[in-house]
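Renewal narrative, Specific Aim 1. Our central claim is that a sequence can be written position by position from structural information alone. The example that follows is taken directly from our test logs and has not been curated for this report. It begins with the structure tokens describing the chain, in the order in which they were read.
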């Protein structure tokens, strides 16, 4: 029994060392080469926080902004405080401009990342507009419909078509798409049907693509953020723990760091067995709970 206990102790120590190594080398491939990521929708909000988090973990990161006037004077800084086990030197950051809803500009973002870093290992597609005003389908004009579908669904196809050949060539790729909580069930969302249809379609696309690309070493997953609102999209978890939020079962607001940590996990080399999955980052909340509360039904 003593020998067995000692062996178990060594096994636990080895597992701990392995976990630490995975965090420490998150931005580096198995050969020690630095991984490169393109993060769309990263001018602000969840996309920007995710890009900064990957940057701190050692990834080279291409940030995407849609309009030239949104280009910052200098590239975004790595996330602070640095994630546990982050390397001493963060990755390199560049800023690219392009509208992902346009096929040529989406492909141009991929070419820009490849030109800057010589490779593209990770695609995080966080871009996608949301209908702030509820508009029934009978009142939604064709331009409004097309905006939701083009920017939320078609854009993923344009980016993937440009990025997958490079990922296949290297036999490594991590694709992370963004949907919304409960999107896997294609739920009804009155007044926001176009957005819900686009994101639900994105889930189906991801699951199909996961099967198609698994033989090529490429994983495809979907992040489903909860109702994370300003100013929390670019705030750290530690700040949120000091604030009560009765809207989530966990009792605190969701933050951009919550989402970024989940994305970083999916981008690890050793996360290759996780593909075709939806990861809910909601604090236990789902959209129907908020709708019931708004209607006074608990």
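The sequence written for that structure reads:
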């Amino acid at each position: 029994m003593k020998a067995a206990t000692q062996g178990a102790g060594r096994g636990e120590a080895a597992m701990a060392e392995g976990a630490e190594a995975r965090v420490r080398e998150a931005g580096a491939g198995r050969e020690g080469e630095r991984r490169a990521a393109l993060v769309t929708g990263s001018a602000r909000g969840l996309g920007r926080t995710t890009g900064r988090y990957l940057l701190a973990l050692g990834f080279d990161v291409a940030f995407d902004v849609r309009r030239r006037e949104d280009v910052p004077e200098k590239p975004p800084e790595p996330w602070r405080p640095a994630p546990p086990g982050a390397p001493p030197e963060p990755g390199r950051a560049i800023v690219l401009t392009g509208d992902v809803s346009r096929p040529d500009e989406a492909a141009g973002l991929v070419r820009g990342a490849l030109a800057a870093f010589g490779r593209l290992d990770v695609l995080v597609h966080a871009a996608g507009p949301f209908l702030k005003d509820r508009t029934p389908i009978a009142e939604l004009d064709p331009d409004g419909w097309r905006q939701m579908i083009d920017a939320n669904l078609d854009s993923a196809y344009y980016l993937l078509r440009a990025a997958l050949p490079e990922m296949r060539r290297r036999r490594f790729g991590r694709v992370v798409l963004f949907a919304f909580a409960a999107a896997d069930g294609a739920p009804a969302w009155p007044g926001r049907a176009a957005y819900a249809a686009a994101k639900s379609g994105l889930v189906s696309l991801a699951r199909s693509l996961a099967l198609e690309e698994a033989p090529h070493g490429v994983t495809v997953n979907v992040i489903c953020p909860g109702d994370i609102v300003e100013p929390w999209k670019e705030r750290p978890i530690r700040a949120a723990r000091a604030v009560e939020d009765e809207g989530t079962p966990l009792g605190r607001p969701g933050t951009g760091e919550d989402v970024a940590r989940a994305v970083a996990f999916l981008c690890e080399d050793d996360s290759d067995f996780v593909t075709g999955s939806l990861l809910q980052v909601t604090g236990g909340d789902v959209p129907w709970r908020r709708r019931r509360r708004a209607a006074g039904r608990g």
